[in-house]
Amino acid sequence: MAVVEPGDHVIAEWPTYAPLYEIPRTLGAEVEYWELREELGWKPDIEELKRLVRSTTKLICINNASNPIGTVLDADALGQIAEIARSVGAYVLCDEVYLPLENTESFISMADVYEKAIVTNSVSKTYSTPAARVGWVVADEEVSNRIRTYRDYTMICGGVFNDALATYVLEHKDKILERNRKIVFGNRDIAQAWIDTQHRVSWTAPQACPPRLSSWTFPRMMRSSAGACCPRGECCWSPVAVLSFPAAHAWATARARTFCARA
Fold first, then answer.
1. In whole angstroms, how far apart are CA 118 and each of 63, 93, 121, 168, 251?
2. What is the CB neighbour count within 10 angstroms for residue 148?
């Protein structure tokens, strides 16, 4: 709302969290998808982004770590995206709500590499406190001021108790992350053991350098008959979050339909 106007050209990573491409479209922008592909290990194709970008591109939307893929972009990939955006003066909106659980302290934010970055985050996902409904935005002064204006007209302020809870969580984030790592690492092992027994299910585990783990994965589920759940093609893609749910239950549910669990 603070950046996009009718007629703007917006590039959005896909698949991703739907508002990152649906809201620009609702605001009257022309949205093109920058598609992540399994054959590339779910890594973004920088050459494709170069082909998509135009002199009129206003915004590039990405998600790091990806929801639902789980891909984590390293400093090199972020730098290349920033260079492409800089060549046409575009903003880069990077949703970092799924901050990786491994090597979190060495995670590079888009705000660290690009002067026109707009970074969003919250305590809802990696920090396991969705009930707080508290998040934040990092952007330059001009965009931040626009966002403050919209905020005043849409929510006025956050709740006092919500703010206190979020502050407490961030003050003790090391303990919370340690707890969540144990949950996710354990569930990852359970999920892998289950996948190893299923000939119709496979996945590409999230990869980055250095290795980082997101709480999202994107399993491939082959159809067993014409009456299977997939309405088109030969397979289904189902995002499954394994942060807080016992993975065995989550995967079993995902056989029939898309299943999302959050902390």
1. 11, 5, 10, 25, 34
2. 11
Residue labelled with tokens 């492409």:
84
CA–CA dist 220, 98 (Å, integer): 21
Inter-residue contact 247 to 191 (CB < 8 Å): yes
Owner of token pair 């990077």: 94
pLDDT tens digits along 103-140:
777 789 999 999 999 999 999 988 989 989 999 999 99
Using DSSP, state whether 60 is helix, strand or coil: strand
- Counting other chains too, the contacts that 247-253 makes at CB distance below 8 Å and 24 or more residues apart are 247/187, 247/188, 247/190, 247/191, 247/194, 248/190, 248/191, 248/194, 250/187, 250/191, 251/191, 251/194, 251/195, 251/201, 251/219
Q: Tokens 């026109």 — which residue?
A: 116
Nearest 5°: phi and psi at 118?
A: -125, 110
pTM score above 0.90: no
Token pair of 235, please? 């397979």
Q: Is the peptide bond before 100 cis (omega within 30 degrees of 0)?
A: no
Nearest by Cα to 217 from 245, 200, 197, 237: 237
